[in-house]
Design brief:
This protein is of the alpha+beta class. It is built from 10 helices and 9 strands. Bound molecules: zinc ion.
């Protein structure tokens, strides 16, 4: 019993959550049915082209409307306990959690799955999990990297509120105050890992560590230049510390979808700026 009591509560929290590790299904094929044009008259083709043009105009219009409908940061918060802002859209692919905006303490993504990518460890633990869409996109990113002879490994994905709470409490005890603990760990609710949309990655060239030097490795550079094609951004950029509230973290990838990721990458923005 004594031995059990001595166990870190973080370990207990982790152990309690290891039961659920579904695997992501294969990414669905997006094959489309193609008509045989030889069976159609030129008139029909012209008509179809007009139709297609109308369709693409409509798609562009819808896209613009979609853009306009993006919730701004101010629209997605409410005052929680202690006057801290709590996000109202934790399930949104574009949710922003940071030092000013907490995730609800009871928020657990309902579609967590394990991406089929190499990890730096073997155990089946919750930190292998991500939301299904993000997990599938991560698989695509890793597959393309492998094709280009870039070897990356996943290190840390989903983290529950309770685990973050346990880590924070442990650090507060260890360092003497919450303030000190906050220098090395996020307050519960303020870690983006709770969204299930983030994954920390590393490589052998970075000695399997989550360190700034990863950004200078061949793997780190490849990821910075290509992640957006798969809907990922390097969330905490150099020179953007005042906006994100975090130091440069070349290893921390965040899924936002291809459209947002491409825009953010090309404009050298942060997620916060994209949603302002
Ligand atoms: Zn991270």
């Amino acid at each position: 019993m004594k031995l059990f009591k001595k166990m870190s509560i973080g370990v207990i929290a982790l152990a309690a959550l290891t039961a659920c590790t579904p695997t992501v299904n294969q990414v669905e094929d997006h094959e489309q049915t193609v008509k045989n044009p030889s069976e159609e008259t030129a008139d029909h083709l012209q008509e179809n082209n007009d139709e297609n043009k109308k369709d693409s105009d409509q798609a562009a219009k819808n896209n613009n409307e979609e853009k306009k409908k993006l919730p701004t940061l101010a629209e997605t918060i409410t005052k929680g306990e202690n006057g801290k802002d709590v996000v109202t859209n934790p399930n949104d692919i574009l949710v922003v959690a940071n030092k000013e905006r907490r995730l609800p303490s009871d928020y657990i993504p309902d579609d967590l799955a394990e991406p089929n990518v190499p990890f730096t460890f073997e155990e089946d633990v919750p930190k292998k999990l991500m939301r299904k869409e993000a997990a599938a996109a991560l698989e695509s990113l890793f597959n393309q990297a492998e094709k280009e002879n870039i070897h990356i490994l996943a290190q840390s994905g989903y983290r529950s509120y309770e685990t973050q709470q346990a880590i924070f409490a442990y650090n507060a005890k260890r360092y003497g105050s919450e303030e000190e603990a906050n220098k090395v760990s996020a307050y519960p609710g303020e870690s983006e890992h709770q969204t299930g949309l983030s994954m920390d990655i590393t490589s052998s060239s970075a000695e399997y560590q989550l360190v700034e030097a990863f950004g200078e490795t061949k793997e780190g550079r490849w990821v910075a230049e290509n992640a957006h094609k798969f809907g990922y951004i390097v969330r905490y950029q150099k020179g953007k510390e005042q906006i994100t509230g975090y130091q440069y973290e070349p290893w921390h990838l965040r899924y936002v979808g291809i459209e947002a990721a491409s825009h953010i990458y090309k404009q050298n923005m942060t997620l916060e700026e994209y949603l302002q």
